[in-house]
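Hey team,

Filing this mostly as a record. A colleague (T.K.) asked me to run one chain through the structure pipeline before their review meeting, and I want the input and output archived in the tracker in case anyone asks later how it was produced. No errors, nothing strange. Just documentation.

Input sequence:
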Amino acid sequence: MPIRFAPLRLPLRRRLQTAAVLQWVFSFLALGTAPPDLIVCPLVVFGEGGCCIRWCTPPCGVLAPQYPLPCSCCPLSGGAPLSPPLSPQLVKTAPLDPSRNYLFGFHPHGVLVAGAFGNFCTEATGFGELFPGLTPHLLMLPFWFRLPLFRDYIMSGGERDKASVSYLLGREGGGQVAVIAVGGPPESLEARPGALTLQILSRKGFIKAALQHGAALVPVFSFGENELFHQVPNPRGSLVRAVQERLQKLMGLALPLFHARGVFQYSFGLLPFRSPIHTVVGAPILVPRTPCPSREAIDRLHATYLEQLIALFEENKTKYGVPPEKHLNLI
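Output structure:
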């Protein structure tokens, strides 16, 4: 296959976006094991949305994010977020009461959860303007918080350990949004262009957490999430999938063998394709506070959530490039 090289003459804006995405991908793949002298950029620019996350050490000495952030510190934005045609887009379908706490179920996981990061860890897509009074927190596996430097990097963007879900949903006064990629690492092994497989039928822990704290459930579907990367063929039952699943059980995280484009050519590499993401936030499902929910109550709410998620997907799929004959595959 011939290599498709990037044009020599591209606008500086495009070059800066590529550099920013390269930094982001590098941080996820290598920051946990990189020596400190390679960590030279305390300013993170999410290039596709043009927003910044600054590192901030408050008086208590604990690293914490200043969120949401204006983009006046960003040399690319001129004081306002950039809006390139292929940036992530956050779509609001219903208002959310800031006096409540919410649990967003994010689907699909994708390879690197790029849509969740861009929409809920930065102000690139204007979360604060769309949902005033709410602060989102993307929940990640505990494994990532055991890595020096990487832990501080992800916390600077608002990410939290999944174990903190009770703390967030139990906050008095509302205004907190816990965002969880429900399919988790196993679902990343299904991520490839055109895939619509969600691992959700047996995942009910987030339902129980919502009931225990009376947090409203909100289904979120990110159209285009699976279009960012190709993946080495790994059908169920294959040797590749068997090794991946074995490593996932041992390490607690999946290792998808993905590839997309490079910096100076478009034929191979680890950068995502320049493809749009439209993350649609559904209407809230109000949940009564039930400190000790029964299995029947969990199953009922889980069924309601699945109905709302499917309806959200079906109502929006043709707007964002999904053929009308395609449907979600829930496993």
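Quick notes for T.K.: Residues 85-259+270-330 form one domain. Residues 105 and 225 are 14 Å apart (CA to CA).
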